[in-house]
Hints:
Blueprint (H helix, E strand, L loop, with lengths): L1 H18 L1 H31 L9 H49 L8 H42 L5 H27 L1 H18 L1 H10 L2 H23 L2 H29 L4 H42 L23 E9 L6 E10 L4 E5 L6 H8 L7 E6 L2 E2 L5 H6 L1 E4 L10 H6 L9 H11 L2 H4 L22 H15 L3 E5 L7 H14 L4 E5 L3 H4 L4 E6 L2 E6 L1 H7 L2 H13 L1
Parallel strand pairs: 3-8, 3-9, 6-7, 7-8
Antiparallel strand pairs: 1-2, 1-4, 4-5, 9-10
Helix pairs in contact: 1-2, 1-3, 1-4, 1-10, 2-3, 2-4, 2-10, 4-10, 5-8, 5-9, 5-10, 6-7, 6-8, 9-10, 14-16
Bound molecules: adenosine-5'-diphosphate (ADP) and magnesium ion.
The site of magnesium ion (MG) has 3 residues, from helix 11.
Amino acid sequence: MKKSLSYGFKAIRLVWEANGIYSLVMIFGKIYESTLYPFIQVFLLAQILDLIPNIKTLESSSFIWIILTYLIASFIKLALRSYLDMREAYFQTELEGFIDLRISKKLTELDPATFEDPEFQNLLSQLEGVKGTLQMHVIRSIALIDAVFKFITATIVVSTSFPLFAPIIIITTIPFYLAVDKARIVTWPYFVEKRSIVTRVTQYIKTLLSSDSTSKESIIYKTGSTLLGKIRDEQKKYYKEFNDVVNPWPFRIFLGRMVQFLAFIYTQYFNFARIMEGSLSVGQFALLFQQSQNLVFSAEEILSQYSSMSARNKYLDKFFEFLERKREILNPVSPIKLPLTTIPQVIEFKSVSFKYPRSERYILKDFNLTIKSGERIALVGENGAGKTTIIKLLLRFYDVTEGEILINGINIKELDLSEWHKYIGALFQDFIKYQFKFKDNIYLGDLSKTENEKLLRDAISKSGADKYLDTLPNGIEQIVGKMFEGGIDLSGGQWQKLALARAFFRDAPILILDEPTSAIDAKAEYEIFQNIQKLENDKTVIIISHRFSTVRHADRILVLDDGKIIEQGTHEELISQKGLYEELFEIQAKGYK
Ligand SMILES: Nc1ncnc2c1ncn2[C@@H]1O[C@H](COP(=O)(O)OP(=O)(O)O)[C@@H](O)[C@H]1O
Ligand SMILES: [Mg+2]
């Protein structure tokens, strides 16, 4: 109960944030139209009915106010209706845009680790559907407010004549409510989960029939009607079940309504008796009759809006769970600021053990590593050895399970995280391909240096992206990627060079390259790393690569196996050790011969 209402308030608050004052106009408009205006109308009618017996002796002043009130109330209604006619759909899209922005904003505020959580990915994929649910919830919440308003007005008016009226109506509405609520609970899955099974089968078969690669085979094999039959069977099953579930409810709901209706007739009989007796005027009777009806409708409306809101809670849970999600990796209360410097910090992993959340397996166990300022480190090792995990810990995407990571002797948990990130330029295997202009891909590496074209050109030549820049018709202004109009798609290696240019443009003291060069040919990769060697010689560089041609020039190579450093040293040292490194090097060397 609390949940439905609190989601109702939250939904309305979102509308308020999206549309501001207009949302009040919208809510007021609804209430005015469906409650206030009809009330004013019938109230004035009651006055007129009561004046009719003495109409001949009346002064015009005794009914002029009735006419004036009617005119003003009607003007307001017409104005509001005209406004809402045009604005409602507009507000709807505005709200949708607002929700999209809200979702996107939340995405920028979450831990990087969150996105690696499959449950979170699942939640994300459901959010689109929840958006529609949220809008329904807004509409229902407004209808509920309106119904409550109507109910209160009617109760006050009706109680003046018959105090027990409201309680009687509420009690006799309960059977109706129970029937509607139960019906909704049993039919709801047919609108959502069960329906989605049919939709998925239908969608799948439709793609089979319509895609050019699969339609050829269905034509030759004449599978069309068999596939159609599958849709038909699935639908038949669904509608049969759905129908069976719906079937008993109309009659039960009708019975519920009858209970309420009989109570209503009883109360009207009571009012009618008072007219006969002379203690109620015709005008008063008309007013009471209309308000009694309103009482019945609004009681019904309150309960059924409420029941429909409750049915939706399960889906809204997801949405609000998402919006209220908190970061797990937080900045310390009083973070230590690293002194501004271009000298790379000393990085130290001290007895670090780590396992991913919700996993029992240690990826790193008692891991120790010190990276000196300006050192060039290469990490090698098989897939799954833990190389990327080390980088993720260094960027504090995750907190270590045991041990500590020190930056110039300061625990990483005590640093201001976004300050720390300023010292790092990192590029991963799954880097971003911004479908914007060529130059934007590079400028996005450091927003504080945007439009510095000299640095831009430097970064382009270091990364080797200058090799293909000339082939782009619009040069650095060229839109890259196929998503937007006028865009030209790049090859895998070209994208990687562009992303490298972004990392070089950032010009941070620590450069991390986690296999971003797999699609660049060996020769070009070699040149890029020669560039790094020559041009970035005051920086700390951490390279992860499977190519020994790249790795061999590092100051120190770490061979990682199952989260442990099993060998380390320069290329020559490792070759002479005749361990895993030497073995892998020989395999690759043979492959090239
Ligand atoms: N988000 C994650 N949740 C759980 N396990 C993960 C996650 N990311 C990586 N792993 C596991 O951690 C191990 C090391 O992965 P990773 O550091 O990516 O290896 P590498 O970069 O050396 O190929 C692998 O066994 C991988 O399955
Ligand atoms: Mg990796």
